[in-house]
């Protein structure tokens, strides 16, 4: 397993380009396939490319919000305390990478944007508490949990959304929504996830290098910035009092919770927009005021 891992690392380091360059390469492949398979001319492919360049702008914004709001939620004070407590559970390097893999997978199944950040923060905390753990493998374990994002997959949520939008996006191939019970929450999907969450930590334990090949990180480099000192409410301006008001956040959360309950009670499906709305509302609640939500304090 370690030999296979080392081989994959060397392959990726040598041939995997930067993410942006990878996107450009894929664009070139699609350009060539359009000419070869669809009998398009180079000029027509350029026109298709230019006309559709901003076609996914709305979807891109949705994805950006998933990451931003998931990050805000994972950095809420209550989750920071949970992460610090969880980081004390593993006692050996192999159990550390397996533990991070499992917890990151569970967090990602709850919501993938939240899980990506939660797992990364947990990996950093575990690196502080379990000496001798390979830091590269810890980070890999946290981000590899993205494989468990299928329960809140953006593709499946999009397919379960507006049929008119689906008709447009798929050029008429899909004219009706596909419920999540046939994709994310299908019995075969759940069975695959159960099998994966058993195999996942075992694979990472087997991949942990020997002590002489282990690369650790100085825990002092992972020290978090100190929490800002609380501001005396008497010295606040009216604007600052509004920004730091827990009542405002609570009222917004209550209104949002009412809407969320109505949405699902009326038989509507989970969508990307609703997922982001839920992340935003729970972020408001757990950060307690607008200012802490904005700066993830």
Task: Compile the SSE list and pairings.
Layout: H1 2-15, H2 19-37, H3 42-51, H4 57-74, H5 77-86, H6 93-110, H7 112-129, H8 135-144, H9 154-159, H10 163-169, H11 187-207, H12 238-243, H13 246-265, H14 272-287, H15 290-295
Description:
This protein has 297 residues and is an all-alpha fold. The chain has helices at residues 2-15, 19-37, 42-51, 57-74, 77-86, 93-110, 112-129, 135-144, 154-159, 163-169, 187-207, 238-243, 246-265, 272-287, 290-295. Helix 2 packs across helix 3 (42-51). The model has no long low-confidence stretch (mean pLDDT 87).
Q: Tell me the number of helical segments per DSSP (H or I, 4 or more residues long).
A: 15
Question: Percent helix among the residues?
Answer: 55-70%
Distance between the termini: 40 Å
Reported for the largest beta sheet, the result is: none
Low-confidence stretches: none
This entry's quaternary arrangement is single chain
Say how many strands there are.
0
Order of helices and strands: HHHHHHHHHHHHHHH
Estimated radius of gyration: 23 Å
**Average pLDDT number:** 87
Structural class of the secondary structure composition?
Answer: mainly alpha
* Percent of residues in beta strands: under 5%
Q: Shape from CA axes?
A: globular
List keywords for this structure.
mainly alpha, 67% helix, 297 residues
How would you briefly describe this protein structure?
The chain has helices at residues 2-15, 19-37, 42-51, 57-74, 77-86, 93-110, 112-129, 135-144, 154-159, 163-169, 187-207, 238-243, 246-265, 272-287, 290-295.
């Amino acid at each position: 397993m370690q030999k296979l891992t080392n081989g994959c690392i060397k392959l990726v380091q040598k041939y995997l380009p930067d993410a942006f360059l990878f996107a450009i390469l894929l664009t070139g492949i699609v350009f060539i396939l359009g000419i070869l398979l669809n009998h398009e001319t180079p000029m027509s492919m350029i026109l298709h490319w230019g006309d559709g360049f901003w076609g996914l702008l709305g979807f891109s914004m949705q994805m950006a919000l998933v990451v931003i709001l998931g990050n805000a939620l994972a950095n809420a004070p209550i989750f920071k305390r949970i992460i610090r407590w969880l980081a004390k559970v593993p006692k050996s390097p192999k159990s550390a990478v397996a533990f991070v893999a499992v917890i990151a997978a569970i967090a990602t199944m709850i919501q993938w944007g939240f899980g990506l950040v939660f797992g990364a923060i947990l990996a950093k905390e575990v690196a502080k508490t379990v000496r001798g753990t390979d830091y590269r493998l810890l980070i890999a374990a946290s981000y590899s949990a993205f494989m468990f994002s299928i329960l809140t997959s953006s593709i499946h949520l999009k397919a379960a959304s507006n049929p008119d939008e689906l008709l447009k996006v798929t050029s008429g191939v899909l004219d009706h929504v596909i419920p999540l019970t046939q994709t994310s929450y299908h019995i075969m999907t759940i069975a695959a996830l159960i099998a994966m969450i058993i195999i996942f930590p075992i694979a990472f334990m087997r991949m942990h290098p020997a002590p002489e090949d282990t690369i650790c990180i100085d825990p002092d480099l992972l020290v978090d910035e100190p929490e800002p000192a609380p501001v005396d409410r008497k010295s606040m301006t009216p604007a600052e009092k509004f920004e730091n008001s827990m009542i405002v956040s609570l009222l917004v959360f209550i209104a949002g919770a009412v809407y969320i309950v109505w949405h699902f009670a009326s038989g509507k499906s989970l969508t990307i927009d609703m997922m982001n709305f839920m992340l935003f509302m729970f972020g408001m609640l757990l950060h307690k005021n607008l200012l802490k939500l904005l700066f993830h304090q």
